Prior knowledge:
Elements: E1 2-3, E2 11-12, H1 13-17, E3 24-31, E4 36-38, E5 46-48, E6 51-52, E7 79-83, H2 86-93, E8 102-104, H3 115-118, H4 120-130, E9 135-139, H5 148-151, E10 157-163, H6 168-174, H7 181-193, E11 197-205, H8 214-224, E12 228-232, H9 240-250, H10 255-263, H11 267-282, E13 287-289
Parallel strand pairs: 3-7, 5-8, 8-9, 9-10, 10-11, 11-12, 12-13
Antiparallel strand pairs: 1-3, 2-3, 4-5, 6-7
Helix pairs in contact: 2-4, 6-9, 7-8
Residues 54, 56-58, 61, 63, 108-109, 140, 175, 178 line the site of iron/sulfur cluster.
Amino acid sequence: MSRGEGGDPNIDTRRLHGKYERTLVRVGEIRCKTLMGRSGIGSVDYSINPYLGCAHGCVYCYARFMRRMGHAGEEWGSFVDAKVNALERLRREAPRRRMGKVLLSSVTDPYQPLERKYELTRGCLQLLLERQFPVSILTKSDLVLRDLDLLKKFDRCEVGFTITALGDVARSAFEPGASPVEARLQALRELNEEGITTWTFLGPVLPYLTDEGLETLINELARSVSRILVDRLNIKCGNMPSIRRALSAHYPDLQPLFEAALKEGGGYYGMFRKKVTDMCRQRLIPCEIVF
Length: 291
Ligand code: SF4
């Protein structure tokens, strides 16, 4: 990957995204050597990441190791590089790849605010559609609705939304730049009504916070998704300091319990597993717990 000239420094993401808290993100433009790489994730064959970094800035994000690609020491969520030659690369790579399922994206959000300007994800979908590569989209942004016209043309296409908790206080504390949860739920409803296969990644489960409104959330998901995947919160890739900052700023009283739940061997998460499994079983929603 080579760092290029240009890019808009200090883009105010409120102009791009509308209404969310995160404001200043350093935007760069880079060129990548490969875009459509083999994926190490079992359920997909390839992954495409049109951006380096993510303005959603989730405090628990496991992709923060990507800072080593030219952003060592920078705060995760404070920079995004657009891969400006992404479509040029994909135009060369896609015809040479065997047919397989493509994930957008594995270490960034393909519909983060900058996508409104660069439209790299949209461009990738247009190219993947030419050969009918099956696509799997995972996002926290309702901007995916912009591309409904393309999604409907795929023979096989699924859209997953990550939801960690129903409440917007938790969203604002842990996923400051992402779409409000209600907007994600509305997007799932619309996609489902349009015949797109939808699913939800319920996670990472935030001790005691994911529990708030869980039944309401599962009731909602029962109407709009075909399956739910659940995972716990893992402490890795250096995410603990930012999780602690979020807890002490927004949930100081909960912090000791929250941290204890992460260390216990099965207490909190064992109870959560049973609770969510029962709720999904009662509502006949396929639910896979991966912890
Ligand atoms: S949306 Fe995904 S990639 Fe972006 S910061 Fe959040 S967890 Fe990381």
